[in-house]
Design a protein that fits this description.
By secondary structure, the chain is α/β, with parallel strands linked by helices. The chain contains 13 helices and twelve strands. It folds into two domains: 126 residues, NAD(P)-binding Rossmann-like Domain (Rossmann fold); 181 residues, NAD(P)-binding Rossmann-like Domain (Rossmann fold), CATH 3.40.50.720. The chain has a seven-stranded parallel beta sheet with strand order 8-7-6-9-10-11-12, with helices on both faces. Helix 1 runs parallel beside helix 12 and helix 5 crosses helix 8. The N and C termini lie close together (12 Å). This is Phosphoglycerate dehydrogenase.
Length: 327
């Protein structure tokens, strides 16, 4: 077959075997930065990207590129217009990490409900203060508000409904009541999610519509006893406004698995707030999710370069890619 696939980061064995058994040559990248990709991309027909950004400069440097596959459910790191301009198909792995991220969202809710960051801070110096004086709540019977009810949001909803006996309300302008899990109340008022929920969990992509759509206004709508969870994309939250709200304890707490800048700078003040738990974007970082994502990415590469119908194209490029990508 002779196709070369660039791997700026290694993929798991299932994905590697899938491609190599079909005659693809896998090229190990020299680094993750833009200049590394530009240097390595020449002569490659495809690329599977995890942390690296696919900028217009990368597409301009590529001389044979036909397919980009994002190793995960997000694709805001890919310049889609540049991909269109250079006739490159873009795929992703939207269902590979759904279970792992949903479990992470529940983990962060539990972390917040038990005030775990403050507990860890105090229990060595004052065991009984940490045990008896810090406020904690149950999740049972509380209201969970979801922004987005796709693959991940739907799984979170089911876990909350059946595992924690929560009431689940959701806002998703692209879903109908029939398309969301049974027991979820779909509402058309974005503000209502923030007003009524004890936990608000974000599960939507970062795009022009959603970037910065949670800030001072939305946080002011929330109950002072409520918690905000973000396992989606850091760009969804206006970080400066969020910091001010949390510094002033506008809500009870928050957990962020994602941030505007990753990794965050050591002087980011959010890192040092007792009421904000922050993780290193670990939602999809499980063995199972990584295995599935690598395999799904390999399938996407093969589908495009073999001229097959693509299972997981980026939604914005479905029609474009079906008509225009040639191999």
């Amino acid at each position: 077959m002779g196709y070369k696939i660039l791997l700026p980061q290694e993929i798991m064995e299932e994905g590697r075997e899938y491609l190599e058994s079909r005659g693809y040559e896998l090229i190990k990248g020299s680094g993750l930065e833009e200049e590394d990709i530009i240097r390595d991309i020449k002569g490659c027909d495809g690329i599977i990207v995890r942390l690296s950004k696919m900028s217009r400069k990368v597409f301009e440097a590529a001389d044979k590129l036909k397919v980009v596959v994002r190793h995960g459910a997000g694709y805001d790191t890919v310049d889609l217009q540049a991909a269109r301009d250079h006739n490159v198909m873009v795929c992703y792995a939207p269902v590979a990490n759904s279970m792992s991220v949903a479990e992470a969202a529940m983990m962060y809710m539990l972390n917040c409900s038990r005030n775990f960051k403050k507990t860890q801070k105090h229990f060595i110096d004052d065991f009984y203060y940490a045990k008896l004086k810090l406020p904690r709540v149950e999740m049972d019977g509380k209201t969970l508000g979801l922004i987005g009810v796709g693959n991940i949001g739907s799984r979170v909803a089911k876990k909350a409904l059946h595992g924690f006996n929560m009431k689940v309300i959701a806002y998703d302008p692209y879903k109908t009541q029939a398309e969301v899990p049974e027991g979820v109340q779909l509402i058309d008022d974005f503000d209502q999610i923030f007003k009524e929920s004890d936990f608000v969990s974000l599960h939507c992509p970062a795009n022009e519509e959603t970037t910065g759509f949670v800030g001072t206004r939305e946080l002011e709508l929330m109950k002072p006893t409520a918690y905000l969870i973000n396992t989606a994309r850091g760009k969804l939250i206006k970080e400066d406004e969020f910091y001010e709200a949390m510094k002033n304890e506008r809500i009870a707490g928050a957990a962020l698995d994602v941030m505007m800048e990753e990794p965050p700078k050591a002087d980011n003040p959010l890192l040092y707030l007792d009421n904000v738990t922050i993780g290193p974007h670990l939602g999809a970082a499980t063995i199972e999710a990584t295995d599935r994502a690598s395999l799904h990415c390999a399938i996407g590469v093969d589908e495009v370069l073999s001229g097959k119908e693509v299972t997981w194209p980026i939604p914005e490029m479905k029609d474009f890619c079906k008509k225009k990508v040639t191999v």
